Amino acid sequence: MRDEDILKYIPRGRKNARSRNIIAKEAGVSERVFRDIVNRLNRQSVYDLIIADQNRGGYFLPKFPEDEEYCNTYINQTFSRANKEKTKALAMKRKLKKQMERHREMPGQMMLDLEENDG
């Protein structure tokens, strides 16, 4: 199945949103494959935007103009989530750097191996 073939299984309009489980079954793919396809298609500008409606628990292709406001909200939430993840990743990177600095060997420091060696 080509990625774009999944579009025929996704309904148009927020009020018609359908669950990932149902769409994946109809398309004959796993839910994980379905999510991967949706992510790939949403990164390509030639295809319609595919929205995962958190409130109604389903996926849909926007119907304009009635879905425009929801689409903008969805995009803003996605940016917000991405910024929070970036902030978290940067903090984790700083923590790791500090921890690694504390645990590095210092020049002239002796290391004591307490593990028994069989050889």
UniProtKB/TrEMBL annotation:
Region annotation Disordered: where it falls in the sequence: 99-119
Protein's name in the database: Uncharacterized protein
